[in-house]
């Protein structure tokens, strides 16, 4: 492991540690039972199978969104339309489950794949607009999310809504199309294996294929990529399509695994969560499951803490913000990084001289 990787790991660990320490200090000030609150935060998810199941259930969609945005961000394209892709993926999976006559064994997979395909179109729109009109992809992708949410609300209210239900929800998704639970006493479903497979696929794509190399080179230095003969426009579009596809698949898996009806009437926030995940994972899909588990564990612990004590769950939002600030701060531990690199260079030079 080189100095750069060691430094990244060290900085990540310190960022998380500092964020948790500040959170603990806030709890000490705000809570009547600070020690109990901290204990619930750290150990609450481990107290029962159901509680730990909540961690894994929360982790599954975070893996999909983390991998999707890692691929898009690797091309240095700040496309935030993944939120809309995830939302549309859930809607499309529900629509197909309720209306398409598909053989029983294939039904969930067809729903998920079509959800992924339409999800990729959502992220493609801002990418194409950037290529053709040089529009600001950040603004156009944010607007796409609003378009998708209002479109989904229209479809839910006027096409999929069950008039006999006491809320704004779709007709019930047939049981044979839903993804089965794999651990008794929890709602952990087959989507966990799909998510882990997607994370492995993302790693292979980015680090073991030619197109992945081109995506990373384009993201690191677009001018160098152009001079190297890489078709930057094609690579950029491919990264957005693949990322959107993964977001869409994630939305389909979430609906079929965790819900019996479609009821999403507002943004779920997974697109923003994805930014936290990919920041923690340093845009490496192989690390995304670990980052997703960490975030899901903290949020489950915060929920247990808020039930057992008077500390609100928003304390973890504070921790998330501090972690992001420290991780993206270029000057955080920069002097130590220079010392590490210089030490490694001196050691390499010394070894070379000894070899002579």
Automatic annotation (TrEMBL):
Q: How does it sit in the membrane?
A: Multi-pass membrane protein
Where is this protein localized, as stated in its record? Cell membrane
InterPro entries attached to this UniProt entry: ABC_transp_permease
Q: Where are the transmembrane segments?
A: 12-31, 51-73, 80-100, 106-125, 137-156, 188-207, 228-250, 315-333
A GO cellular component term found in this entry reads: plasma membrane
Q: What GO terms are given for molecular function?
A: transmembrane transporter activity
Q: What keywords tag this UniProt record?
A: Cell membrane, Membrane, Transmembrane, Transmembrane helix
Q: Known PANTHER family for this protein?
A: ABC TRANSPORTER, PERMEASE PROTEIN, GUANOSINE ABC TRANSPORTER PERMEASE PROTEIN NUPP
UniProt protein name: ABC transporter permease
Q: Which source organism does the UniProt entry give?
A: Sedimentibacter hydroxybenzoicus DSM 7310
